[in-house]
Amino acid sequence: MSQLILARGVSHYFGSKKALDNVDIELQPGKPIALVGPNGAGKTTLFSLICGYLQPSEGEIKVLGHRPGSAALFGQLSALPQDALLDPNFSVAQQLALYARLQGFSQRQAKIETQRVLELVNLKDTADSRAKELSHGMKKRICIAQALLGSPKLVMLDEATAGLDPANARAIRELVSALSTETTFVLSSHDLSELERLCDRVLYLQQGRLATHQLDSQTEQLAYLTLQLREQNDHVAAALKALPHVVSVDNSQRNEFVIGYSSEGLSEAMDIALLTLCHKQNWRYRALINGHTLENQLFATGA
Ligand SMILES: Nc1ncnc2c1ncn2[C@@H]1O[C@H](COP(=O)(O)OP(=O)(O)OP(=O)(O)O)[C@@H](O)[C@H]1O
What we know:
By secondary structure, the chain is of the alpha/beta class. It folds into two domains: 5-214, P-loop containing nucleotide triphosphate hydrolases (Rossmann fold), CATH 3.40.50; 223-299, Alpha-Beta Plaits. The protein is built from nine helices and 13 strands. Strand 6 (154-158), helix 5 and strand 7 (184-188) form a beta-alpha-beta unit. It is globular, with a radius of gyration of 23 Å. It binds adenosine-5'-triphosphate (ATP). It comes from Pseudoalteromonas ruthenica. Residues 5-232 form the ABC transporter domain. One of its GO terms (molecular function) is ATP binding.
């Protein structure tokens, strides 16, 4: 089977500005892939190259064995760009059916496919509404429905849940998760906790250069827990360090501690020992995370 995304020495220039610098990617189909990085790091540029909206200035990129933009990828790859727009004056069903027809569905199949994707995003009732009558969040979900027409193998979603309320954002995450056995999603977002929940592979761009992260590679020698407390407490780091088997404590940010410990010969699970300590010390905890948070993996120096 062809690789999902293969990039070899890909660079992209806008005039003299090098937006992507010698990027190599080799990704197989599977669980969702996060595309992250600070503003201006080159995420949209990479997104556009994979979709075939831009051509690389140098290097080669292949999606499912084909050059992005080629006819062979028609119906196999779809994208929700950050600024995706619907026509305000046509009904939702008319627009989706048109896109389905463009993908080669017959008129009858296009109607069925339109209903199917609207059901997926839980917006069946909006079929006859015009886009201008819908809220921002509803429009976003319709655009996601559009990206799902024809069940493509690769779906690129740029900031898919930006501007959605928590319940709708969660519904989209659940949808991505549920469809992930059939479709590989590439999700670009600044919401690291969202990506952390969904993805086990990360493409991290920094000034146009790529570092691929496999999430949370716990070694056999050392395991990590991240403890987030509700309020500031003195002496937390010292008390954590005094626990048996704890090797390192990193105060990664305010009220957050990354605890490295040796799992060899543990008599009591470390999470239980930590919660017992919180209880004894009267520390109220907000979260206890197995491993590092994605934010710490990407940005913290000591993590
Ligand atoms: N059309 C363009 N013309 C000139 N420079 C551009 C153009 N598009 C992007 N750039 C530059 O290329 C670099 C990468 O931009 P890109 O939009 O890919 O970053 P990004 O990671 O998507 O950023 P953000 O998180 O802010 O959306 C930036 O320095 C940007 O200024």
